[in-house]
Design brief:
By secondary structure, the protein is of the alpha+beta class. The protein contains eight helices and 20 strands. Helix 3 packs across helix 4.
Length: about 375
């Protein structure tokens, strides 16, 4: 009798018409279990992603977004916009292994409208996300933003830091987003989200702009560390530079060697990781680059002030659905939304990056 019952149960859960129900049950249970594990272990996951032009289909007459309208060069419409939103949601859920990250930095976001659509009208609606976004003067109308799960992160305040180049007063670029908040109920952290000027015009011609933004960011970080030397600081973004380039290694002074003990320096987690295994977050022709990075303060590197970034868990998220075969330059390439002017229907021209932050004992 016992064997018959087992066989009956096995048939019920494996027959073709019950597979969808079974998947739903597993999805619900796994999500609940993973959330429970994260809370018990006092660990949170943080992600950053350049999501490649998340525009709505409306024409904003104050911005150069005409190509992302139905009548524009990209023939951007509601069908493509909806697909893009669901691609972003799918990726964030996958990054968290069915429990999406507590904190997500995004860039190439047009406005609050697309963010509301993302967190309230996709599968992300089940996870209690809110967002922080400030409209920037970027001519193309794309900004940085931060998503956060209210059960895991409490916002204290936020500010948008304008960039004004003294050598080119007419130029406009994305602002730096600074969010101060609380993790693990009582530990504060300052988070900077960046999208630095592109390499349009070549590396050397555009380098002074990124160097200048690095100078602005360094002053902001120094001001925080002046008030609190052991401040938890997490910098993330698309820097349009590699960890070893001048803006990051010399101006921002982000180290690429792990800290032996606590100090007030900055540490580039992607630079440290890539010394072990060279990877990239975007590909141009046959060349991979790592423009998307995490940089942390010495306190966050060493767990000196209540939390620590797990360097071993820093990861470029390279899921199979984000990639496709590269028939021109061989290997793989990114599954992009657009391939030049042609709609491709993919995800992004950048890969996301992620890091886990764990709670640590405070020093006595």
């Amino acid at each position: 009798m016992f064997i018959i019952i087992l066989l009956t149960l096995s048939w019920r859960f494996n027959r073709p018409d019950s597979g969808h129900i079974h998947q739903k049950i597993l999805f619900s249970e796994n999500r609940a279990n993973l959330d429970s594990i994260k809370i018990k272990s006092q660990s949170v996951r943080v992600a950053f992603w350049n999501i490649e032009n998340l525009y709505d289909p409306y024409d904003d007459t104050t911005k150069q977004d005409d190509e992302f309208t139905a009548a524009g060069a990209k023939h951007w419409n509601w069908t493509k916009f909806s697909a893009k939103l669901n691609h972003v949601a799918k990726t964030l859920i996958a990054i968290g292994s069915w429990s999406p990250p507590a904190i997500v930095g995004l860039c190439e976001v047009e406005n609050r409208y697309v963010l509301n659509k993302l967190i309230y009208e996709t599968p992300l609606k089940s996870y209690g996300y809110k967002f922080i976004h400030h409209e920037s003067p970027d001519l193309r109308g794309v900004d940085v933003a931060m998503l956060y799960r209210t059960a895991m992160f409490k916002v204290i305040d936020s500010q948008s830091v304008s960039i004004r180049f003294p050598f080119d007063t007419l130029a406009q670029t994305r602002e730096i987003l600074l969010v101060n908040g609380i993790l693990f109920n009582n530990d504060t952290i300052s988070i900077f989200i960046n999208h630095w000027p592109s390499r349009r015009g070549g590396y050397l011609g555009s380098q002074p702009r990124r160097n200048y933004v690095a100078t602005v960011l360094k002053k902001l970080i120094d001001s925080i560390q002046t008030k609190k030397k052991a401040a938890n600081i997490l910098v993330m973004g698309d820097f349009n530079d590699e960890p070893e380039n001048e803006s990051l290694s010399k101006v921002l002074m982000a180290q690429r060697e792990p800290a032996p003990s606590y100090d007030s320096s900055l540490y580039n987690l992607m630079g440290i990781k890539n010394k072990i295994r060279k990877e990239g977050t975007l590909k141009y022709r046959d060349q991979w680059s790592t423009f998307d990075q995490f940089i942390v303060s010495g306190a966050l590197m060493c767990g000196h002030s209540g939390m620590a970034a797990e360097v071993a868990n820093v990861l470029i998220f390279k899921s199979s659905f984000l990639m496709e075969e590269d028939n021109t330059y061989f290997g793989e390439k990114l599954n992009r939304t657009y391939s030049g002017p042609k709609y491709h229907g993919g995800f992004s021209d950048h890969l996301p990056v992620r890091v886990d932050i764990i709670q640590t004992p405070r020093p006595r």
